[in-house]
Design brief:
Elements: H1 11-21, H2 31-43, E1 47-51, H3 54-64, E2 72-75, H4 82-89, E3 93-96, H5 108-121, E4 127-129, H6 140-150, E5 153-157, E6 165-166, E7 169-170, E8 179-183, E9 196-200, H7 203-212, E10 217-218, E11 236-237, H8 248-258, H9 261-279, E12 284-285, E13 293-294, E14 300-304, H10 312-322, H11 338-342, H12 351-359, E15 360-363, H13 371-388
This protein binds pyridoxal-5'-phosphate.
Pyridoxal-5'-phosphate binds at residues 53-55, 79-80, 82-83, 131, 157, 159-160, 183, 185, 196.
Length: 389
């Protein structure tokens, strides 16, 4: 079976992990801050907080920006559930902004209209989480402008977008946001097995996230409150936090994977270009690039039309699975998940995301995809179109 994505692990990665295992620390030693500076240096942010997943990073990012009961967080329905559940973990409300049918990211027009409507009702969001779907950056300058007008904070969910750029700005530099979150799950751009990171340029936010990932504990004497001068206090828990720490072993893998990132990006972009070329004649829509932006190509989602053959996407999905190509679907819109239906969202709430979901199919794209596998996928896709007509 050819997967839709998978990790790329070198002998050098294995060596780095083995060395970490022999080190003095297994959790939060020197490699975690080293990994953090590697990421912030790469992205051009001032700070980075590494944690055990992007989901955890989104959670503490929301807490660090003060999200709580009564507040609203808005995000894209065309994403993984973690983009939205971070709000619920803080006791806040979640709502969605429908996507545009060009970039499949949140639509700026819909966002603007929804902000005007929410302003009248007094339900403006405290936080917006734009998701750089498939690696294609959202229109951050436009979103940032709206945040200044309506006063919301921005957390970029860049789980797909390590290495993506727009107008020569790196995603993760937080030029147009308060915090950016990346995932290091094995299918993402680089991996730490499980892991995530939050970048920011705000020292207070960084400190708060560092504290929240480790039980809300501080070792900074200036922040300590209750110490009796007769006691020796090494640390104080000053707020409610979690154990979201990343281990030295995971950081060792991440640090070493960073050496391959530009190679990974080149390969992914090369595969995308070859798909664009090979699939050009088929009746489907290939991913488009916004002018001035460079996608990391975490995913290569195509859109197939039901006008061509009734129930075509499903037939194509089954056909490709049958010939051993594990095509995938990104995403079942979050608001259609049974849990979100239970908390009040309905079919039809975000029609573009639903339409997109019914027609999309993600083709395999990852650094270790061989030329033989690529040719096989293209051959089978073309064959499917001939047979299913
Ligand atoms: C993968 C992913 C996440 C969650 O990442 P984890 O590291 O698995 O927690 C969140 N948002 C998006 C868009 C993702 O693709």
């Amino acid at each position: 079976m050819i997967p839709y994505s998978r990790q790329s692990i070198s002998d050098d990665d294995i060596k780095a992990v083995t060395e970490a295992l022999r080190g003095d620390f297994l959790t939060q030693g020197p490699l975690v801050p080293k990994f953090e500076s590697e990421i912030s240096h790469y992205c051009g942010s001032s700070y980075a907080t590494a944690v055990n997943s992007a989901s955890s990073a989104l959670h503490i990012a929301c807490l660090a920006l003060g999200l709580g009961p009564g507040d609203y967080l808005w995000t894209s329905p065309n994403s993984f559930v973690a983009s939205a559940t971070c709000a619920l973990h803080c006791g806040a409300h979640v709502d969605f902004v429908d996507i545009d049918m060009e970039s499949f990211n949140i639509s700026i027009e819909v966002l603007e209209a929804k902000l005007r409507w929410a302003e009248q009702r007094g339900t403006l969001p405290k936080i917006l989480v734009p998701v750089h779907f498939a690696g294609q950056p959202c229109d951050m300058p436009a979103i940032y402008k709206l945040s200044e007008k309506y006063g919301f904070k921005i957390i970029e969910d860049a789980s797909h977008a390590l290495g993506s750029t727009y107008d020569d700005i790196n995603v993760g530099s937080c030029r147009h946001s308060d915090i950016t979150v990346f995932s290091f799950h094995p299918v993402k751009m680089i991996t730490t097995c499980e892991g995530g990171i939050a970048t920011t340029n705000n020292n207070e936010i960084a400190e708060r996230m560092n504290r929240l990932r480790s039980h809300g504990i501080t070792r900074d004497p200036l922040l300590m409150t209750s110490h009796s001068h007769n006691e020796i206090w090494n640390y104080e828990q000053i707020e409610l936090g979690y154990n979201f720490r990343l281990s030295e072993i995971h950081a060792a893998l991440g640090l070493n994977q960073m050496k391959s990132l530009s190679k990974f990006l080149d390969i992914r972009r090369g595969i995308a270009k070859r798909y664009d070329y090979q699939l050009g004649e088929l009746p489907l829509i290939t991913p488009r690039q916004r002018l001035g932006s460079q996608s990391s190509y975490h995913l290569y989602p195509i859109l197939v039309s039901d006008e061509f053959v009734n129930n075509y996407r499903k037939k194509l999905y089954n056909f490709m699975q049958h010939v051993g190509v594990n095509v995938n679907i990104h995403y079942i819109p979050i608001h259609l998940q049974p849990y979100f239906q239970k908390i009040g969202f309905k079919v039809g709430d975000f029609p573009n995301a639903e339409r997109y979901f019914r027609h999309t199919l993600s083709l395999p794209i990852y650094p270790d995809l061989t030329d033989e596998s690529f040719d096989y996928i293209v051959f089978q896709l073309k064959d499917a179109f001939r047979r299913l007509q």
